[in-house]
Amino acid sequence: MTTLITKALLPHVKHLRKVCKISKFNHTSVRLASNNYQAAVFKSKDATELTFEEKKQPKLKDSQVRIAVAYCSVNIYDVTSFSDTTRKFPFVPGYEFSGEIIETGKEAAKLFNKEDRVIAFSFDHCGGLATECVVDYEDVWTTPASIQLKEAAVLPYSYAAALYTFGVKAPIKECSNVVVAVGPAGSGLAAVDVAANIYKAKVVAVTDTEKNSELTREKGAFTTLHYKDNIEKHVISAFGNKRADVIFDAVGGEVHDVVTSCVDQNGKIFTLSPGKVSPPPPHSSLMRISLNRLRQQNLPEYRQIVQDTLEMAEQGMFTAHISEKFDFKEVNKAVEFIKSKKCTGKVVVKVN
Fold it and tell me: Which one of 46, 113, 156, 168 has the largest count of C-beta atoms within 10 Å of its C-beta?
């Protein structure tokens, strides 16, 4: 198997390709009635909360699998997307989730079996906040037996994006100077963890609260700064009168402008923000990281970086941070929790 991460990490990654045949997850408990399932739905663009509906199972295409959802992650970007007026309603949120396969299409059956424990993405149609979700097999990975489904639901996207950034697009090394803008969605924490602990870089984390500062220090940041600090001055001081080789912006907006002022000549800036951001300073570069776009541009690379992420997690090289857990019927409490800015990372909803 060819891995995308840098050669320095190859000895640490065992390419195990395990398919777990045993699961304690009982998918039969999710069935409401024959061919029906339950979903949390935004009925219209004017809806203020999710409502629960019984929906009819769609017929599987050859390339698809039907997954009984165990856990679905929710973060600030999910919540802000609920108000997207260009979206087709009714709408079932949730693009990152874990569970167990309960049905496979003809082509998908060549790679997956019923009862396989998996993680999946559903970028285009979402649908993860439901007892069942249908996705293409190219967006599904077998979950290693040592990784709980709760953690599997929040780990792949954030850590795969960080590994793709620091291992592929801007390979960093020990003592590289990295600044990470950490927000409430979990991707910033993952970037700190990967840069500091996997690649041994020198990481300055920029956060909005002391609680987030504590978490980033626990993840490996050697120092933390607040958004309102004189960031440029303090970053240069922290790096011994040097600027950052790489900026990882997991926040966007005004914070993007603040942290990018710290980039060195020929430095690289990466953002996960889906919104508009300012152009980079002279003699530096800016790139937006999106696994969804990577899927469209280079499917093998997309699948490989997520596979690498799961295998490294299996070996305990990193673990995801879960800010809070809610039951399926409490999904509106989960949304309010995120809106209130109480979260310090991804929120997970236990569907089954």
Answer: 156
